[in-house]
Amino acid sequence: MRYPTWKYILIVFVLCISAIYSLPNLYPDEPAIQISGANAGIKADQAVLTQAESALKQSGLSYHGSQVQAKGVLLRVQNSDAQLKAQAAIKRALGDSYVVALNLAPTTPSWLLSLKAAPMKLGLDLRGGVHFLLEVDMSKILEQRQETYTADIKGKLREAKIAYRTVSDVPNGLSIKFEKEDERDKAKELLSAEYREFVMVAAAREGAFYLDLGFSPQKLKEFSDYAIEQNLTTLRNRVNELGVAEAVVQRQGANRIVVQLPGVQDTAEAKRVLGRTATLEFRFVDWENQASADGFAPAGTELFTMHKTNEPVLLQRKKIVTGDRVVNAQSGFDEYSNPQVNISLDSRGGKMMADATRDNVGKQMAVLFVEHKQRIKFMTDENGKSIEIREPYVEKNVINRATVQSMLGSSFRITGLDSPEEGRELALLLRAGALAAPMYFVEERTIGPSLGQDNIDKGLLSTQVGFGAVALFMLVFYRVFGIVANIALFMNVAMMIAVMSAIGAALSLPGIAGIVLTVGMAVDANVLIFERIREELRAGQSPQGAIIAGYDRAYTTILDANLTTLIVAFILFAVGTGPVKGFAVTLSIGIICSMFTAITVTRAVVQIIYGNRRVAKLSI
User: What class, spelled out in words, does domain 278-423 have in CATH?
Assistant: First the structure.
């Protein structure tokens, strides 16, 4: 019996890596409070930490660690109940200038963190929190695109002096009506060259000639993807305000978005942030009275402050265009490599912008960001109990002002930015001002942290019982070979945990079920091998010959069985939703690891035991 040296090296290497990346799970994250500024201009420093510690002491709440980090201040507490009480006390002390968020602080040793080793993330069903399912109204994004194309096509036809009667919306496209057939044919020739996204069909009905323009399936998918991606960007920006660690905002199906906020129990607060309204206003700067304003706004003007610098800016009350006309905003660079933001308006917004800027070239235009928020106040009622009062208010800041260099239309650019980072931030603020398409809450669930801990405890118990039962079965039925199988089973579980920790996969309750199932399936390959070895022994093979034949002849059966299961796991992941995906991920990782341990690892251990000596009998 011989076994390649490189396989021993591979096994030792995999075992070491598995040990390193599974070890952090022995050091689970602990509850903590993270404090950060409400915006980029506010920093959470040592003074904020001192104020937070004082608030906890006054409330009689204990903590066992605090530090100032790059992202803000972090205070460690004992448990989830203390975490919620500490958040309320600190929020009351610091006010609206800071975001006080629930978080988890790592307890992993620094030498493991330096190797990028971290514990597995826990899903919503284990940590608790809120789950929202939002549906995007795709018909609205199509209406916006139809309106834009209608205005553009009308302009093209007028420029080419082609007579038409109407341009109307039809399902998934447009329809242009002509009185003469030759005018329709000219229009088709003209538009076909410029609008390749349409499928154009010439038709005659009701005594008139029509050119039907249908959006291609690729273009409709592009509209849909844009609406989803834009809304995802907006939602992620809003979720960041909550400061929730490991929040999940992802697409589900064709027109739905799943938002999962682990650790959040205040559903009303979460819905307020996700559903808040913000908009933009484009106005001209009133330079005639700018110098003499001095805190007072003359008639027909309003005084605002510049974003970040708090510099006063006097704007005209008349609005040029509002944010509901912005359909896209992307940061980039101009021909001189200076940062800029490219703005796209709908057709109506483009006309309003053109009319306003035609006679105002050389003047400055400002972008006013208007956001509707709630201010939280704490008051004491007549019974001496602290109550929370939410007071709505509107916050307005000038986020950019620039000189109008020429008449603007549906597409224009904002220049004069200080850095590419400012350009990206401005584009993000512009996009976050309005959703690409309306969204509606279609599902809402709240899961308590106590239920999550109960799930963890029972999941660990089921895994331990399953592992113990399988290990005992293998030991009783296969003796020494059973010990070999149990060694491989232990390594298989360690590999699964290491892989899931390394790739950042979130462990959910279905994921625990996948681990338990894999524990049972992991020894299936060894049962096939061991039974094949028994058959070879009964057929008169020598002990070592039976081992070689058992592994060689069982390999194909093991590969087929695991490959079919792996295909099913991939299908579950492709078509399933969150819980099903969690089960499929765990099952897939477990199958791949079990094939390695059941075939390669056990073969190496058997080689060490029986390979280099004469054997008269196998303990199997």
Answer: alpha beta
